[in-house]
Design goal:
The chain is of the alpha/beta class. Helices cover 43% and strands 21% of the residues. It is built from 10 helices and 10 strands. The radius of gyration is 27 Å and the shape is elongated.
């Protein structure tokens, strides 16, 4: 009996020690998990590319998130979200596509905010001889090809078409239009000399040293250019997504946007 008691006295502390060790390991694993960065996918209009990349460096310094950008034409992105593509935030280059997703309940309505704005400009190659100071002065006879975003899916293309229609130029220029999948492709067409002129956002024109701005579209000639953003209904990280939406409206984020040619 004494031997049994002594044996128990030796075994019990080992069992307690083992349980304590297991608890410590569990605690360590939980802590490690809590230190992992949350992946946050932002589906945004491609015109925001450079500004968002700048924000990424600033934002990730102070937040435990890993920002991932899915950049394309707003229509393409909206359709991806409708089809179930993963996204935590959607930022459109116009209100129409955001309205569509809101109607279909693909975004959380009370998170929707206007982030910034832009302007449509007419551009040509840096070494081009084409030189006019107003869209109204375009001479279709002197233009072989003009690049614009697809008006059906690219907001910049829609604004451009409205501008040309209201300037009574669309009918004569439309046979010469080369439609692009987004504004960055329009920029590339003009940079490489594949088209004589093109229409892009002012923010896109400012990032290229291979083109020059000929004229800025009168804002009365097209719908207001507004970039709304919202958290998607299917986001798995709504808390972090809402925090980034708040950041987008901060002074720091707005200064970055202004530096890249956007204006609220």
């Amino acid at each position: 009996m004494k031997r049994l008691i002594l044996l128990l006295l030796l075994i019990v502390p080992l069992i307690v020690s083992g349980c304590s060790s297991n608890k410590d390991n569990t605690s360590t694993e939980t802590s490690s998990s809590n230190n992992e960065k949350v992946p946050l996918t932002v589906s945004a209009a491609v015109s925001l590319t450079d500004a968002l990349e700048k924000m990424k460096k600033q934002y990730e310094k102070d937040h435990a998130v890993d920002l991932k950008f899915n950049l394309a034409g707003s229509g393409t992105l909206a359709q991806q979200i409708q089809q179930g593509a993963p996204a935590d935030i959607f930022i459109s280059a116009n209100e129409d596509w955001m309205d569509t997703l809101e109607k279909d309940q693909d975004i959380i309505s009370d998170t929707r905010k206007d982030i910034t704005g832009n302007r449509i400009v007419m551009i040509t190659g840096k070494d081009s001889d084409y030189d006019i100071s107003s869209i109204a002065d375009i001479d279709p006879k002197k233009i072989d090809q003009v690049a614009i975003g697809n008006p059906e899916s690219v907001p910049a293309g829609k604004y451009t078409k409205q501008t040309l229609e209201n300037s009574h130029l669309w009918d004569t220029l439309s046979p010469k239009v080369v439609q692009a999948k987004d504004v960055r492709q329009v920029l590339s067409y003009v940079e490489t000399g594949n088209t004589d002129i093109g229409f892009v956002y002012e923010s896109d024109a400012k990032i290229s040293d291979k083109i020059k701005i000929l004229a800025t579209a009168d804002q009365d000639l097209h719908d207001p250019i507004i970039y709304p953003g919202a958290v998607t209904s299917e986001s798995k990280h709504k808390k972090e997504a809402k925090e980034f939406m708040t950041y987008l409206q901060s002074d720091e984020a707005q200064k970055i946007l202004e530096a890249y040619g956007f204006q609220k």
